[in-house]
Amino acid sequence: MRGLYLVATWVAIALVGFWIWVRDRKAYRRQKLIEQRIRPAFVPEDEALDELDLPYWRRVVVPRWQRTMRILAQKVTPQGFRGELQRQLQIAGIKLSPEEYFLYRLGAALVGVAAGVVLAALNPLWASTLRLAAPLGLGAILYLLIGAHVNTLAQRRLKEIERSLPDVFDLLSVSVEAGLAFDGALRRVTVNIDGPIREELLKVLADMQIGLPRAAALAALAERTRSQHIKRFSALVAQSDRSGSGIGTALRTQAREIKAYRAARAREQAASIPVKILFPMVIFIFPAIFIVILGPAVLSVLALLH
User: Fold this and answer.
1) Are 94 and 149 in contact (CB under 8 A)?
2) Nearest-5° angle of CA 294, CA 295, CA 297?
3) Are residues 208 and 217 in contact, defined by beta-carbon separation less than 8 angstroms?
4) Who contacts 101 (Cβ-Cβ below 8 Å, separation ≥6)?
5) Cβ neighbours of residue 188 under 8 Å, at least 6 residues apart?
6) Chain centroid to CA 7: how far?
7) DSSP symbol at 51
8) Residue 217 burial class via C-beta count within 10 angstroms: exposed 0-12, middle 13-18, buried 19 and up
9) What is the per-residue pLDDT across 176-202, written as a single tens digit (0 to 9) for each?
10) Residues contacting residue 187 through CB under 8 Å, at least 6 positions apart
11) What is the pTM of this model?
């Protein structure tokens, strides 16, 4: 009987503790929501209202260092590659200027050179050519690896954008045919879709909000992505702006064309699989089959000859 009372006491304590935890959890969520709502009305404690209230390193040292690095990056970045670097970084989704990116690549190359010098110092038995090639080789490898990584990110992001274009055009056509304006349809698409295409459409909306015509904003999107479908889409929007015609039906037609194009590309790639698989079969599979089939016969012939 005493044990039953003890168990009942512990259960009651647990229930009271759980009720207190639920009550405090609700109060915490309510306080968190209130804090998020009133946060924009207050100045953070680490941000001073007067510049003179900031420490010396934030007022003088940090701005001077940033200005020096910006000037150095502009000096070392090749002039002819800035536009292409800017487009490549935008496609890859990297929020860096071409100068900063090129400076990071040079820094990585210098790190590789330093690592090669350390390796050469730790191995005095290496030949002189190897001791010279190690720093240069490591620096060049790191420099090229960063460029290859950015190219891979850009190609992957472009493929994701191309893959999501049919859904974007379907949503645009449905929204336009439902009565929304083109700008509202774009905003609706950015709400209902995710991925790199959402970021690019948000950039288009931002360009349109600062006064750029929508045809020019879409042309800038086509220039960034180098997509033929988006280029035709921007031309379609420009034509509708000039003629005043609706674009809902045209958007749906273009979505069907993109789907048909993707299906044709898939059939083409499927048809090229036998040709692509021929070389791995000749190099790797056929020798193993020949060894399994002709191996015992060759061993028997060798045994007879000897």
Assistant:
1) no
2) 65
3) yes
4) 85, 89, 94, 150
5) 171, 175, 180
6) 57
7) G
8) buried
9) 777 777 778 888 888 888 888 888 888
10) 205
11) 0.60
